[in-house]
Design brief:
Helix content of chain B: under 10%
Number of domains of chain A: 2
Oligomer: heterodimer
Strand content of chain A: 25-35%
CATH superfamily of chain B: Intracellular proteinase inhibitor BsuPI
Radius of gyration of chain B: 16 Å
Number of helices of chain B: 0
Order of helices and strands of chain B: EEEEEEEEEEEE
Distance between the termini of chain A: 50 Å
Number of domains of chain B: 1
Shape of chain B: globular
Largest interface: A-B, 39 and 27 residues
Shape of chain A: elongated
Number of strands of chain A: 22
Largest sheet of chain B: 6 strands, mixed
Number of strands of chain B: 12
Strand order of the largest sheet of chain A: 17-18-19-22-21-20
CATH topology of the largest domain in chain A: Thrombin, subunit H
CATH topology of chain B: Immunoglobulin-like
Number of helices of chain A: 8
Radius of gyration of chain A: 28 Å
CATH class of chain B: Mainly Beta
CATH architecture of the largest domain in chain A: Beta Barrel
Chain lengths: 411, 128
Amino acid sequence: MSRVPLSVAALLGAVLVVAGCSDSSQPTVPSDQPDDPSLRAAPQGTSDDPNELARGVRGFGGFFIDAQGAPTIYLKDASEKGNAGRALGAFFRATGLTPSQLKVRAGQFDWTELEGWQAEGGMDALAVAGAVFVDADEASNRLRIGVEHGAAAAGVRAALARRGVPASAVIIEETAPIERMATLQNANTRTGGLQINFPGFVCTLGFNDGTGSFITNSHCTNTQGGVDGTDYGQPLLSAGIVADEVADPTYQGGGSCPAGRVCRRSDASRAAYRSGFTGALGLISRTAAPNVKKGALEITGTFTINAELLSGGTVGTIVNKIGRTTGWTQGRITSVNVNTNVSGSNITQLGQTFVSAGVGGGDSGSPVFSLGTGNNVTLRGILWGGSSNGRSFVFSPLGNVEAELGAIRSF
Amino acid sequence: MRFEIVAPADVRHGDPVAVRLRLVNVTDRAVTVYLQGRPTAFDIIVTDEAGQEVWRRMAGQTVTAILGIRALAPNESLTFEDVWPQRNSSGGQVPPGRYAISGLMPTDGEPLRTAPVQVHIHPAPPLQ
């Protein structure tokens, strides 16, 4: 039997997690409490929702389109069919269906009763370990509850009984848990391209090294230049410290560095994983496609590093990056071996490469690579900045990183 | 949040124009903001009466792509200040006239933008 999709209120638990992650301007920081009070009491439908239109019909128990495409309504009193057809006028006009097509099923419960039980008993039911969803089901005139396993059913029944929800109004079924989509901002698999967090800031994990460490930017440490043991979480510190900074050469003046400034050839640092944590050597999380907006951060698989290129590259070559903010972006190298002043500092990065591709705050540390066959990629360097309009990024070539942090073994 | 810009309405030709950007938590609860850069990046954009961009503070600059996490208590604010030297993007002195100045701050999503304010550059000392 086809069903109307589960309502927002029925998936309140999952919606709260998604709402915590859905704001494009905020890093993923899940909260136990919803920020938006309206989420606590989200109505089942909107003004063009047939269930809203028919709410005032006496004995209304739910409306849906059946498997044969017929508009179907639950009524405790079938004589209300005419009233129901008139109440649903806007729906019929909008959909091209007609009241004459309306089918009536004998309803046992009022829709308002089901909504009330969902709002009260349903909340208690969702608090039971193993509960997945609670739905005032338009298509069965019942409170439908999904549980991961049979053991949760007893707890759910008890919770509903305490709220006075009649057992005859409830259908409990086993279902797969609803899982949050893994994104570059919430996955904790310690691959390249995933979010890292150190006190007060968010960056991207560049790539793992065979020494049990990962490489990110020097400015993605508490003190840019010089080791201070910066702690990292992946994706968040609140989930625990996974690594500590162990290498970050100081910036030096003189020589080829412009007067009054300090320089390095790479904006790179190394963090060693703590005992019990390892990095996914050779892997970079990948998303569906480059330079897209929709689904830009959802992880669809992994790239595999199978080669390294140490030089800054050639103008016109296409390169890619994966970063926690703008995901997978791709574009051509526009300039190589560029000495670049860093905005707001006295730092100059020597011998950098510029790429005409998107970047955003949080992408610092992104691995830069070129595509090979299949999911194989050649690692080329580490991203550290970009233009203020976010249309071009700059990276430190891998050779520059090795010169300052020592030999790299990225696969 | 409220993002506002403050600049003098009238200035003398050739005098630097002090600009202040202010990000204020106007709610009654703590709010966390996510701002790019270290230090936090902010832009000031000047356009002429024809709407053409005359000067931009961060033009041509390379900004670190780090994201800072800042928590603001109710009524707490962040302030960013700089000066428009009355120059155009080529470094030349702009002529007297009316200009619009606005502020912009990159985040990890859409940038924050202020409404523009008008600045009148007078060829003579400003009227009292």
